[in-house]
Design a protein that fits this description.
Helix content: 25-40%
Number of helices: 13
Strand order of the largest sheet: 2-1-3-4-5-6
Mean pLDDT: 95
Structural class: alpha/beta
Strand content: 15-25%
Distance between the termini: 56 Å
Largest sheet: 6 strands, parallel
Low-confidence stretches: none
Radius of gyration: 22 Å
Number of strands: 19
C-alpha cells in the first residue's frame, strides 16, 4: 500500500480547499505528503475543467505524474475533481495510466481509493448536490492567510458555463460551521480570511431563505485575531444596499471587491443568461465608488462571446476606459460542450485571443495609472515572505489579493512573513509597487 503521496492541486481557490481536505484525510490515515513526484508512491491530481486551457493543464499534469510510473517508484495515480467529474466515461479509456477517479462529490473517499486492492480501478461519483459536510483541512496557503468556502455549487446556468454540471446546485454552509472554522483558522495564526464560493452574494438563500452574507461578515469580523476579510466573486446583480453598507462600515472588511461581469453589452449579457444588464453594472459601480471611498475593484472578462462584433467589443473597451476597474482577468471565449453557448455562432478563436490581448494592454495602462496614483500614500503591508531573486520582501496591501494581483516590494530588518507593517508607496517596478517601511 502506498504511503508517500504527492498531491497536485489545479484550478480555483474552491478546488484548493478540496485539496486541503484531502491532505487532512491522508495525514490522519498515516500518509506522508511530499511535493516531489520522484519520491512518491502515489500521486493525486485534483483537476479543473472549467475551460479548454484548464483541461489541457490537467491532462499535462496527469501525464507528467504517469511518467513516474516508468522513471520513479510511483505505483498509483488517482485523478479527482472537475475533469474526473466531466469526463468520467472517457478518462480511463483514453488514459489507462490512471488508477482511479473521484468526482467532485467524492473527494472525501481519497484514502479509500488509494487503499483499494481489488484489482479494479475505483470510480467514485457521489451526489454533487449533497448538503455540505464539515471537513478538516490542512491549510496550504499563507503564512497568515487562508481561503474559507461559504458555499458550493451554482444554480445560475449561464449559457457558457459548465460549473453547475460539475459542482451541483448552490448549497450554503451553515453559518455556525463557517464561524467555527474561521475561529479555528484564527487560533492557528490566520490573519486574513478570503471568502470564496461560486457566488457568495447568495450565501444563505437556501438555508435561511434570505441573502445572509452581510450577517455572516459581521459575525466573522468579531473574531479575535482576524484582521482582514476579503471578498471574492460577488455577482453584480445580487450586491444590495445591506451588503454595501456592511462592507463600508466594517473596518476588517477590505475595500477590495472581486465582481465578475464578463461583458458590458446588454444583448450579449442577455444571450449568455447573465442576470442584470450592462446598465445595471454601470449603476452598481457608480454606487460602490460613491459609498465606499478608496474602493479597488477586480473583475473577470470574456472576449469573443457569441454576439460580440467589433462594435460590442469597442463598447467593452470604452466601458473599461470610463470605469477604470483597477484589476481584471481576461479570457478568450472557450466554447464548452454541454453548454448552450457551444453551438452559438462566435468569432474565430484567434480573434477572441487578439481581443483579449487588446483588453490586457488597455488594462495595463489603467494599472499603471493606478500605481502612479498611489505614490506617496501610506499602506499597511501584509508580508508574504522574502524573494531571493528580487532581494526584497513581497507584501500585499488591501488592494492586492494573493496569486492574482501581484505584490508590493519592500526591504527592512526583522521582517517576518505573516505579519503586518506600515509603509509608504515610493514608486513602481515592472508593473508592481515598491514601498518604504515607516520607522
Amino acid at each position: 500500500m502506498p504511503k508517500k503521496v504527492c498531491l497536485i492541486s489545479l484550478g480555483c481557490a474552491k478546488n484548493l480547499i478540496d485539496s486541503e481536505e484531502m491532505l487532512s484525510r491522508l495525514d490522519l490515515a498515516g500518509y506522508e505528503i511530499t511535493d516531489e513526484l520522484s519520491e512518491a508512491d502515489a500521486a493525486v491530481v485534483n483537476t479543473c475543467a472549467f475551460i479548454e486551457s484548464a483541461q489541457a493543464e490537467a491532462i499535462e499534469n496527469i501525464l507528467k505524474a504517469a511518467s513516474y510510473k516508468e522513471t520513479g517508484k510511483l505505483k498509483k495515480l488517482i485523478v479527482t475533481g472537475c475533469l474526473a467529474q466531466r469526463y468520467k466515461s472517457e478518462l480511463l479509456t483514453e488514459m489507462p495510466e490512471i488508477d482511479g477517479l473521484l468526482g467532485t462529490g467524492s473527494v472525501s473517499r481519497i484514502v479509500e481509493a488509494l487503499e483499494d486492492e481489488s484489482g479494479n480501478k475505483p470510480e467514485y461519483y457521489g451526489d454533487i448536490s449533497a448538503p455540505l459536510r464539515d471537513e478538516q483541512r490542512i491549510v496550504s496557503t499563507g503564512p497568515g492567510w487562508a481561503y474559507i468556502k461559504v458555499a458550493e455549487g451554482c444554480s445560475h446556468n449561464c449559457a457558457y458555463c459548465v460549473i453547475p454540471s460539475l459542482r451541483g446546485k448552490y448549497r450554503s454552509r451553515p453559518m455556525e460551521l463557517v464561524e467555527a472554522e474561521a475561529r479555528s483558522l484564527a487560533e492557528s495564526g490566520v490573519r486574513e480570511l478570503i471568502i470564496v464560493a461560486q457566488d457568495p452574494t447568495l450565501y444563505g438563500i437556501d438555508l435561511y431563505k434570505k441573502k445572509s452574507l452581510a450577517e455572516l461578515i459581521k459575525r466573522l469580523a468579531k473574531i479575535e485575531g482576524i484582521r482582514w476579510i476579503r471578498l471574492h466573486y460577488l455577482y453584480p446583480d445580487a450586491v444590495d444596499d445591506e451588503l454595501i453598507d456592511t462592507i463600508a462600515s466594517e473596518e476588517k472588511v477590505l475595500k477590495y471587491l472581486d465582481i465578475p461581469i464578463q461583458h458590458i453589452n446588454n444583448e450579449i449579457l442577455k444571450k449568455m443568461r447573465r442576470r442584470g444588464s450592462g446598465d445595471d453594472i454601470r449603476r452598481l459601480i457608480k454606487k460602490l465608488r460613491e459609498r465606499i471611498p478608496g474602493l479597488v475593484l477586480r473583475t473577470s472578462l470574456i472576449t469573443g462571446l457569441p454576439g460580440e462584433g467589433e462594435a460590442e467589443f469597442e463598447e467593452l473597451c470604452e466601458f473599461l476606459r470610463e470605469a477604470k476597474i483597477e484589476r481584471a482577468g481576461v479570457f478568450p471565449f472557450s466554447p464548452e460542450e454541454g453548454t448552450d453557448a457551444y453551438d452559438m455562432p462566435h468569432v474565430p478563436t484567434e480573434v477572441a485571443e487578439e481581443r483579449a490581448m487588446r483588453i490586457s494592454e488597455l488594462q495595463a495602462e489603467i494599472m499603471d495609472e493606478f500605481n502612479l496614483s498611489r505614490v506617496g500614500k501610506k499602506v499597511t503591508l501584509f508580508c508574504e515572505g522574502y524573494d531571493e531573486e528580487m532581494n526584497m520582501y513581497a507584501g500585499r496591501s488591501f488592494a492586492e489579493s494573493p496569486d492574482v494581483d501581484g505584490v508590493i516590494w519592500f526591504t527592512g530588518e526583522d521582517i517576518r512573513a505573516g505579519e503586518f507593517y506600515d509603509g509608504v508607496i515610493r514608486g513602481e517596478l515592472d508593473g508592481e509597487c515598491v514601498a518604504e517601511l515607516e520607522v
